[in-house]
Design brief:
The chain is mostly helical. The chain contains 15 helices and six strands. The protein has helices at residues 15-18, 27-34, 55-59, 62-66, 104-107, 129-148, 172-185, 190-202, 206-219, 224-237, 240-253, 262-282, 293-298, 303-307, 325-331, and strands at 73-78, 84-88, 92-94, 109-110, 125-126, 156-158. The strands form two sheets. It has a three-stranded antiparallel sheet, with no helix packed on it.
């Protein structure tokens, strides 16, 4: 995928990035993303070492990007070096506990991604009795609140984080290890890189997320989910033109993407169109909302499908995402046929084809001879 407008990153001094070392980066990620031998990678990498166009750029906006996620800061002790530190556990998931003697603090899962500030280890954490008491109180309050109120809490949820139906990570770094192990066996799998990016994004590490998304697109230019995720993050950073290009590409390539169900694919397109519409309005219509002819050509989108949109009467309400369903279904191409007929919002008009059809050309009857015609 070629972008016309590249964001220029001007880092005056890479030492500015050194302070971000306290959040921790896995050296194995650097090795796998850059192709370096793990022995040549610093045991305590910084964001300046991340490969790709966007990690440093996104890091500059990390506070704004993480504002939508829950914050749960607790003091933990690293099991490797024995030193304490305050860490943001992010969203906490609590399974329904029925067995006697089982404490919620033994079973909770932390979605946030973090590593030891002192030794860069991850996954081996100890909670002091005081912290366990504080955490147990917070978890109990959240359970009571969610049983009374219908709206779920953003920082604590009842349920379980499950990957591929058989792996339950205790910490965000456990989920990272799961995907890095799979990528070690299949490093060219773009879908695995995309899923790793999702782990980082939900773990409040967007600079690591864009690293993984860029790796996914380097291996598969049609990785629609990574296109969308990159576009969304860059839009939140304020880089609207580059963001719009990624989002339009996601819409254009959607018709050939088979790693989502038809319903989920339609929702992704609607989400992309919603952001694009906001960018279109914010820039006084200077940035295109819909994929350009060139972008559609790259995505091998049939011209007849786009031509069908002129026959549709769209009335888009930015506050109602369902009004974008008809347009989204146009860009789904043949995949819209996977939606149940009752759930399709707009059937694509089909023009009548003049007879004879190509398959019937050879079946035409020869003209009858006029027997009364004088010879």
């Amino acid at each position: 995928m070629v972008l016309r407008n590249e964001v220029i990153i001007n880092v005056k001094d890479d030492m500015v990035m050194e302070k971000y070392q306290k959040h921790g980066i896995n050296p194995l990620l650097i090795s796998m993303a850059s192709g370096q031998d793990i022995a040549s990678v610093s045991p305590r990498p910084t964001v300046a070492m991340l490969p790709g166009k966007y990690p440093k750029l996104v890091y500059k906006h990390i506070k704004e990007l993480n504002s939508e996620f829950a914050e749960n800061i607790f003091r933990l002790t690293c099991g490797k070096c024995g030193k304490n530190g305050d860490y943001d556990l992010g969203t906490l998931a609590i399974p329904v506990i029925t067995g006697e003697g089982t404490r919620a603090t033994d079973k909770f899962q932390a979605v946030g991604y973090f590593r030891c500030k002192h030794c860069n280890a991850a996954g081996d954490w100890n909670l002091s009795p005081t912290i366990q008491t504080m955490l147990a109180g917070k978890l109990a309050a959240a359970v009571i609140k969610q049983t009374i109120e219908t709206e779920a809490s953003s920082d604590i949820v009842l349920g379980q984080v499950l990957i591929d139906n058989d792996f339950t990570p205790r910490w965000g770094s456990d989920a990272e290890d799961y995907f890095l192990e799979k990528l070690g066996k299949n490093p060219e799998n773009a879908y695995l890189w995309n899923r790793l990016g999702n782990i980082y994004y939900k773990g409040k590490r967007p600079e690591l997320a864009v690293t993984a998304y860029e790796q996914a697109l380097a291996r598969d230019a049609g990785q629609v989910e990574s296109m969308f995720s990159l576009g969304r993050i860059l839009a939140d950073c304020g880089y609207l033109e580059t963001a719009a290009e990624y989002l339009r590409q996601a819409v254009a390539f959607a018709h050939q993407y088979n790693l989502l169900t038809a319903h989920d694919l339609r929702e992704l397109i609607v989400s992309a169109l919603t952001i694009l519409l906001a960018i279109y309005n914010k820039t006084d219509h200077e940035i295109d909302m819909l994929p350009t002819p060139n972008e559609l050509a790259i995505a091998q989108f049939a011209n007849s499908e786009i031509a069908a949109t002129v026959q549709l009467d769209f009335e888009i309400n930015p506050g109602r995402c369902e009004t974008l369903y008809p347009l989204a279904e146009v860009y789904m191409g043949a995949r819209r046929d996977e939606l149940p007929p009752a759930e399709r919002k707009t059937p694509i008009p089909r023009r009548k084809v003049a007879w004879p059809l190509p398959g019937k050309v050879n079946k035409q009857k020869p003209p009858k001879k006029n027997k009364n015609k004088k010879r």
